């Protein structure tokens, strides 16, 4: 019960920083795909990911996490774990959120 209450109170951010690897100039981030995103229903190979960005894990709403392939289709509610550079972070968010 307490955990559910906490989940309800925590705001959902478009992009969550998970880890910064300063000496390599990399960020590991999580992006949740919203229902209105233009990426919904598209394979990863059709996305114009910014330089230095790679999708490394897809966590679907109701399935086990998996390492994406180029033909992996993104779905509403998928949580995407990605590696990117600080310079490409905002562009990656825009691509995945469909902005």
UniProtKB/TrEMBL annotation:
Signal peptide start and end residues: none
One GO MF term: monoatomic cation transmembrane transporter activity
Residue intervals of the RCK C-terminal domain: 16-98
GO biological process, one term: potassium ion transport
Protein name: RCK C-terminal domain-containing protein
Organism per entry: marine sediment metagenome
Lineage summary: unclassified sequences, metagenomes, ecological metagenomes
